[in-house]
Amino acid sequence: MSDATTDKPSNTSGGQTIRPEEAAHFGKLAKEWWDPKGSSAMLHKLNPVRLAFLRDAIDVHWAGDVRNARPLAGKSALDVGCGAGLLAEPLARMGAQVTGVDAAPENVAAASVHAEGVGLDIRYIAGEIGAQDLGKFDLVTSMEVIEHVADKRRFLSELAVRLADDGLMVLSTPNRTPQSRLLMIGAAEGVGLIPKGTHHWDDFITPEELGELLGSIGLEMGEPSGIAFSPMKGLHLSGDLSLNYIVTARRAD
């Protein structure tokens, strides 16, 4: 992969992990984040799949009642690379006190306006995660973000610094496979389902590589679940990891 790495986990180093051109790319899409037929249409289709995995992971991690509509009541959540709040808002509805961080100020502005419009109290911050003095959170999420960062190990270290000792981390990202190159870049970007230039296949990370990086900073990765696509089911959770996958991580015992 093309990202530079560091030898040791950083502690709120403030170092840059997001490439400026990546932040600029997503910032230009800010006004369409909440349009289910706009440039973020694929994220709107992906979000319920991610939320289904996340809800199960929350119930398992905290041994919660699956019937509880607010399983995160009394807990704090940090969503890094939050965009305009597609995940942050459901986390708030599940009862969490939510903080969203995004490198693009345009996204944070759009997220704040939308949250206010639907009556949700969410703290949004623009900037690098490493530059933020945020404390620790029970839940840390970062969905479809690590494939865009310049230094994956440092980025994961910054997430780990903000994870409570008994907290839960959830990550999702495309896998680096021939299938993802063909479908996500060749097909989806080719026909406009995903904005052209969104992905760079060489920056995708495999589950094995992600597990090794998490292990190197003291986190243990759970069993990944694939996010697959079929004409009959659309996007759905699957044992097939070849396109995209979602995982949990916890502090190693």
Automatic annotation (TrEMBL):
Detail which positions bind S-adenosyl-L-methionine.
50, 81, 102, 143
Query: Enzyme class, one word?
Result: transferase
Q: In which pathway does it act?
A: Cofactor biosynthesis; ubiquinone biosynthesis
Per the UniProt entry, the Enzyme Commission number(s) are 2.1.1.222, 2.1.1.64
The UniProt entry's sequence similarity note says: Belongs to the methyltransferase superfamily. UbiG/COQ3 family.
Record's function text:
O-methyltransferase that catalyzes the 2 O-methylation steps in the ubiquinone biosynthetic pathway.
Q: What is this protein called?
A: Ubiquinone biosynthesis O-methyltransferase
